[in-house]
Design brief:
The complex is a heterodimer of chains A (128) and B (143). With 128 residues, chain A is an alpha/beta fold. Chain A is 26% helix and 43% strand. The longest helix of chain A has 12 residues. With 143 residues, chain B is mainly alpha-helical. Chain B has eight helices and no strands. In chain B, helix 2 crosses helix 4 and helix 3 crosses helix 4. Classes of the chains: A alpha/beta (128), B mainly alpha (143).
C-alpha cells in the first residue's frame, strides 16, 4: 500500500487550478473529465513524480459545512513545505494572496497560513 | 484572532522552549545538515548549542521528535538515497555519507527506507531504463 495522492476540497475546480498553478507554482498532472467535474491533480515542480494533489470538487453538501467551519476557525486543511518561507510570503503577498498568519516561529519550524481563495486555509512550513 | 492562531500561541507558550533556546538547538541541527559526512559526536553538537549534553538531547527530541543521533542517521540515509542515484558504488556511498561500516549502513538503510541499498539502486536503474525505453519508443513513433 502506498500514499500517492492527497486532496483539497475546492468550490470551483477551474479557479482552483488557476490559483494552484499560477500563484503557488504547481504543475497540472491529470485532467480527466468525469461528468460535471474532473479528476484534476497537480504536482510540485520540484517533485514531478511525487504525491499528487487532487483538486476535489464539493458535490456533497455536508462537505461545504465542514470546509466553512474549518475556514472560520482559521484551521489549515493541509500544509506544504517550502525552503524559504519569508521569500514565499513576500512573493505571494505581492500576488495578492491573503495571509491569516504571517511567518511565525514555532519551535523547529516557521509557519504561515494563507487563504487559497477556494474555501481553504493552507499552511506553509519551513523546517529550520 | 482565530481559534487556530490562539492554539498556535498556546502550544508555543506551553510546549516549546523559549525562542533563544530553540535557535541554539536549530543551529546544532543545521550543523548536522551541513556536516553529516564528518565524524560528528554529541559533545561537539552540545557545544554547538551552548548547553549540556543532557539538556541538548532533551530539547532536540522535544523539537524534532528524535534524538540527535537518530536525526544524523536519517540525514545520512537521505543523502545516501541521492548518491545511489549515480554511478557510485554502494561502498563509496556508505563512506561518502559518513558511515564506517557497510553492514551498519545496509541495516540502517533498510530500517529507514524498507529496502536494502542494493534493491534501492536496482529500482532506480530499472526506472531509468524504462524512461529511456519510453523516450526511444516515442521518438521512433514520432518519425
Amino acid at each position: 500500500m502506498k500514499i500517492k495522492l492527497t486532496s483539497v476540497m475546492v468550490d470551483d475546480q477551474q479557479k482552483a487550478l488557476k490559483f494552484y498553478t499560477e500563484i503557488l507554482g504547481f504543475i497540472k498532472k491529470r485532467d480527466i473529465p468525469m461528468g460535471d467535474h474532473k479528476w484534476l491533480t497537480v504536482v510540485s515542480k520540484e517533485e514531478k513524480d511525487g504525491v499528487e494533489l487532487l483538486l476535489e470538487p464539493m458535490g456533497f453538501a455536508p462537505a461545504k459545512i465542514y470546509q466553512k467551519a474549518l475556514f472560520e476557525a482559521g484551521i489549515p486543511l493541509t500544509l506544504f513545505n517550502v525552503d524559504d518561507i519569508a521569500g514565499e510570503y513576500e512573493r505571494m503577498t505581492a500576488s495578492g494572496v491573503v495571509f491569516s498568519v504571517p511567518p511565525t516561529a514555532m519551535g523547529p519550524v516557521q509557519l504561515a497560513v494563507f487563504n487559497d481563495t477556494c474555501g481553504n486555509n493552507i499552511q506553509l512550513i519551513q523546517v529550520m | 484572532m482565530t481559534f487556530y492562531s490562539e492554539q498556535i500561541q498556546k502550544i508555543k507558550k506551553e510546549f516549546y522552549p523559549k525562542d533563544y533556546l530553540a535557535k541554539q538547538v536549530i543551529g546544532a541541527k543545521q550543523y548536522i545538515d551541513r556536516q553529516f559526512a564528518d565524524n560528528i559526536n554529541l559533545t561537539d553538537l552540545a557545544a554547538c548549542a551552548f548547553m549540556s549534553k543532557f539538556h541538548f538531547i532533551r530539547l532536540f527530541k522535544l523539537l524534532y521528535g528524535e534524538t540527535p543521533h537518530q536525526y544524523l542517521v536519517t540525514v545520512r540515509i537521505e543523502n545516501a538515497k541521492r548518491l545511489l542515484n549515480s554511478d557510485r558504488s554502494i561502498s563509496e556511498v556508505c563512506t561518502a555519507v559518513g558511515f564506517n561500516s557497510p553492514t551498519s549502513f545496509t541495516g540502517l538503510f533498510k530500517k529507514i527506507t524498507g529496502v536494502t541499498p542494493t534493491t534501492f539502486k536496482k529500482k532506480i536503474n530499472r526506472k531509468a531504463i524504462f524512461k529511456r525505453h519510453n523516450y526511444k519508443s516515442m521518438m521512433t513513433f514520432a518519425q
